[in-house]
Design goal:
The structure is a homodimer of 365-residue chains. Chain A has 365 residues and is α+β, with helices and mostly antiparallel strands. In chain A, 32% of the residues lie in helices and 27% in strands. Chain A has two domains: 3-204, CV3147-like domain (CV3147-like fold); 237-364, CV3147-like (Beta Barrel), CATH 2.40.390. Chain A is built from twelve helices and 19 strands. Strand 9 of chain A pairs antiparallel with strand 9 of chain B, so a sheet runs across the interface.
Chain lengths: 365, 365
């Protein structure tokens, strides 16, 4: 019997997804409110393992695109998501039979669950990253051959934009100014695919992983600290098992710029024990962490900033001067570390000069 | 029997249209090359008077959108125009039975003729302005109730964008960054309408007017100067009859900025007889002319800069330091001077503080 996502799962799913969102992918509190309301209204959602998805299923993505700094002011709406998906259904002349998340994030892996509830459709236990990334082309669907377009963008005024571009990079370049014009946040539907394509190209098991990670954060028994419990839970996951608590400290500097539909910035953290300083650079998501100039972790591996006491993930738009935080890094799913994947989501794609070095090598050094 | 546009008409049509383009709407030389090639290949084009268009005709626009400074480097292509129109035909589920120009201009009223030849369709003797304007909402179709969207944009890589917006202003705001992303020039298809709508909202007779104006410029007999002949031809036209040769001079300063998908600028002209200085401001098209700070002519009335010897219109991208030019202004079609129209295309829409004053008042004062 397939697993169900119920009301009781939502807090853990949103929290675990926000951790995997590595600073981006939206605020888990807003995401959980949306999903709880939808499940209360429409009932629980069937979670399909990728190998349970029929080959000819019509798999649709429902996601938000924009700057997280704006998403906390301009809430995502299921009605806008519905208009984006139905716009693409009409354009393609076929109707969704399953929903999948584009990425993991406090909003972007929870809104699809809410939307699946609303449509009475199953959600696939998978996504296109096993983390979050700031750009449309940075998903396994693209790396392994699914076309990003036709795609739709929908704003809160019911305005629809349909794109057909030559590749996912061009879709990103065309969609970003549209999203900026839409007020730096829009709902989108892209990478329409079959069940067979979803199985071949998605990162499987990531919703289940987010649930387990979220539970570890929220359901401690007081025996060990929440951050240590989180690291232990990551180590129990196949993808994220090279997990390290890099640094505990206090945020002493923060620079954030919302522009061209993204938020760019740098966060500087002083060690609580006086042993140096960590700098994290982000573009919606955390990209690279350095201690006193030395590389600690780098994309596509995951870098998360969590509350030092509760282990709750802090999205980049929630970072504040003076916060006491722990910085955690863990390995990305292997599908993101292949040469093909690194060509799309490696450090060079973020104007970083460093080569990718796996966290297990950096932390072992 | 309906009139035909033949190979022999094209130079005059492109030249007259470029005059009515008031600095924008594209280069007449490029436009005439495209149209001549199309007519040679596909035969002449039927020119339908608006009252000959069936009520239920499917009328489609084929036009370029972008900065004229870019259009002379990146040529418009009939294939891209065709993809834009066919993209909208597919989206709407109906096929064009007649073509209409969005505006007058060296390219934008000649490319539709070429495209009509290619498709074997008639072109309507009308457009949405009787001149050119830099913004999608500044057409009589919009002022009198035709929806701008759904519309399509097509770039030279075959990339398609379909927009559905709440009004024409929003379409402009959404399309402009897309066009900028497409390299500041794209082909578009918008304001899909019926024959009845075209008849009710278009400015009739403007292709015929352009032909007559172009002939006056090109076919002089040497008895009077080309510029005087041009002014006389304008005075014989019902719309443009308040026509004045404002100023003869030499361009002494030129400031041009291609940004956000437009070209903005100022052209300063010193009187040849030493009697003062004229400043013309433009956004793709000429907007306002002042002599020593005093208003000479202002949108929506037409302001054209022509070669002083040949009377050939000079598009804003063709203005050069040292050129000897005549500045001509004439009245806009009455349909552009109504309060409803001025709300869309009056001076305030170009951040000008002046009120609209008709040229016949300014020149008579």
């Amino acid at each position: 019997m397939p697993k169900l996502i119920t009301l009781e799962d939502i807090d853990a799913l949103a929290t675990g997804s926000a951790f995997l969102g590595t600073g981006g992918g939206g605020d888990p509190y807003i995401g959980s409110l949306l999903a709880k309301q939808a499940i209360r209204q429409y009932g629980p959602v069937t979670l399909l393992a990728p190998d349970e998805v029929p080959d000819d299923a019509h798999v649709f993505i429902a996601a938000g695109m924009g700057a997280p700094t704006v998403m906390i002011e301009k809430l995502m709406s299921l009605e806008d998501a519905d208009r984006a998906v139905r716009g693409l259904e009409r354009y393609l002349g076929r109707t969704a039979t399953a929903i999948i998340s584009a990425e993991m994030g406090g909003l972007n892996s929870v809104v699809p669950v809410a939307y699946a509830a609303m449509r009475g459709l199953p959600i696939i236990d998978a996504d296109g990253m096993g983390r979050a990334f700031p750009s449309l082309d940075m998903v396994s669907f693209n790396v392994y051959g699914v076309s990003c377009t036709p795609m739709t963008l929908m704003d809160e005024h019911g305005q629809l934009v349909i794109l057909e571009t030559r590749n996912a990079r061009a879709a990103e370049e065309m969609a970003r100014p549209v999203v900026a014009q839409m007020g730096a946040q829009a709902m989108m539907c892209c990478y329409p695919m079959t069940g067979a394509q979803a199985r071949q190209t998605a990162v499987p098991g990531t919703l289940s992983a987010a649930l387990a990670i979220g539970k570890a954060i929220l359901e401690g028994d007081g025996a060990i600290s929440p951050v240590d419990r989180l690291v232990a839970a990551l180590r129990a996951q196949p993808y994220y098992r090279h997990a390290h608590r890099l640094f505990d400290g206090k945020i002493v500097d923060l620079d954030r710029l919302t522009t061209r539909g993204w938020v760019f910035g740098t966060c500087v953290i002083d060690a609580l024990d006086g042993a140096g300083q960590v700098t994290i650079e982000f573009q919606n998501e955390h990209l690279v962490a350095r201690r006193d100039g030395q590389l600690l972790a780098i994309v596509p591996d995951l870098i998360a900033v969590v509350d030092r006491e509760t282990a709750r993930p802090i999205p980049t738009e929630g970072l504040r001067y003076g916060q006491r935080v722990a910085v955690i890094a863990c390995s990305a799913p292997p599908i993101l570390r292949t040469p093909e994947a690194l060509a799309h989501m490696g450090p060079a794609n973020f104007q970083l000069r460093d080569d990718f070095v796996p966290i297990e090598q950096l932390a072992g050094a």
